[in-house]
Every structure is written in structure tokens, then in C-alpha cells.
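Extended Data, panel c. Modelled sequence:
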Amino acid sequence: MKLEPEDEYTHSPGTESNFNESMYFNLYDPLERLGGFFRIGNRVNEGYAEVTVCIFMPDGKVAFTYSRPKITTNDDLHGAGLMIEVVKPLEELRVTFEGELTILEQPLDMADPKRAFEQNPLVKCAIALCYRGSAPAFGGEPEVSHEAPGEEFAKAHYEQLVTATGSVTVGGNVWSVSGYGLRDHSWGPRSWQAPWYYRWLVGNGAGFGFMASRVARRDSGGSQGGFFWDGTELHLCDRCTVKSTWSDVTSYHSSVDVLLGRAGQEWHIRGKVINLIPLRNRRDGMVTRIAEGLTEWTLSDGRCAYGLSEYLDQIIDGRPVGFDE
């Protein structure tokens, strides 16, 4: 893997029609009980960006927006009121937003986004956050791509545990935020329909953090791995097993058991979903569901962290394809 400070900035887009360059940030403040995630994905060869802002509020409501503003260049990550700025590569970045969010009293309403946006109120929102790296970055650009044609999701990809400080304003509510999170940056061809399903599990807290990844392909076993941060060292893992408990009614995950491992070491982490919002992507006749679960994680020694459990599934006959794993 190659990762240089200049990789923090945008890259020259490839010729692929579905070239994507994106940055994603999440956070959770356990004192304020406020969480959220923010993403910009530039699809410059298709002429638009994907912009997502999501705030999990302490009362269980979710403030949310998704839009596709038009873009003509890949010069920066800025659209629909959301801006990401690199202050010092791999050390400090800023995320700001000015705009309106939809307030969802029932976050699961987003399973039908058109109806959810039409039937729920809009409020003004302002976000100003400073993200600082709290662990070394993991990943980069491989010397040789391992993605088969048609299965591209990100040619290059790296992640980093971070702290987040700043302010979040939603309507008349103002929170001073000081929490933990994870950020990632990727570029290259991306199709949300390429994985058959995946489980991307991230948590961060005082003294430890982790990322666990399980990706299943339509015609192969896929991949598994991740890392565990013990506060001093980043342990790269080549084993990751995920066991899920599902809601009988909605088929959304409600709890997760994760086992991360490498030679001679294992970490057992249990997750309880605090809140969840389902997102959807439709393309080429396929329906892809991305269930974003705000999650409390507990290590086997009792220590806690918070983060997201992101479950992507292709939906066939109304059912997530990864339900039986």
C-alpha cells in the first residue's frame, strides 16, 4: 500500500464513467449522546456529487439530508452546503455544513425516501467540526488492483481513527461536541451494486478503537479483515467474523458480535444498535440498501466505544441477501 500526504487531496479522475472520490467522517459524543456522519462523493464523470449529512440526536430523532448537486470538476470536496478542508494532511481536517435537514421522528421512514422527505419538516442546521488524527492511517493505494472488472468499489482507500470537536446546531438545539470517530478517503471506480453484501463496523473511544470489514461477493467468498488500535499500536487483522441479530419485522440488524484476529491475538467486540437509518441506492434494476446503525461497542473486558455498523445488502424479493450469514 502507498499513502502519501498529497493523497489527502483530490486526484485526477480516471476515464471510468463511475469514477468516485469521497471522504466520510463520523463521530459520537457520549456526554451529549449525539452522533452523526457526513460524506461527499464526487462522481465528476457523471456530473454530480453525492452529499449526505446525518445527525443522530439524543432524543432518538434523526436529522438528515441527501442530495446530488451538479459538479464539473474534481478540484475539491464541496457541495450542497457541505465542505471538507484539509488543514494538515493526515493530522487535521475541517468539516462544515450550512443548510437544511429533514427531522425524522421515525428514522426507519427513510426506507421510502420520497415519502420521508415530503412528510417530515425541514429545519436549519449548522455544523463546524475539527477532526484530528488519534491513530495512524490504515490503507492506501495498492500496487496491484485486486478488484475484478464490474466489481470495483474503491481503487484506493484509507481510514483513520480521529477525535472531533466543534459545534452542531439543529433548529433551536445547539451542542458543543467533543467526541471520537473515524474518517475515510477513497478514489477510483465505485458501484454500490458491486458487493453482494458487506459489513463495515467501526468504533472509537478512550484508549482503543477498531475497524472490522466483511465483504461478500456474488460468486466468491469475498474478504475479511480490519484493525484494532490499543492506544499505542495499530494491529492489522486478517480474520473477521460477524454474527448478527436481526429485527423480525424490518430485517435490520439490532446487535452484532465481532471477532477480529491476527496471529496469536483476538479481540471479541459486541455491538448494540442505538438508532438506525436505512439508505437506498437504485441502479441498473438493482436495489441496494445501506443500513446505518449508531452502535455502542463493548470489549470483552468491559470497555466501551461508539461508532457505526454499516450493513450494505442487495435486496432480492424484499430481503437482504446477507441475512443468513
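The longest strand covers residues 265-283. This feature is highlighted in the accompanying rendering.
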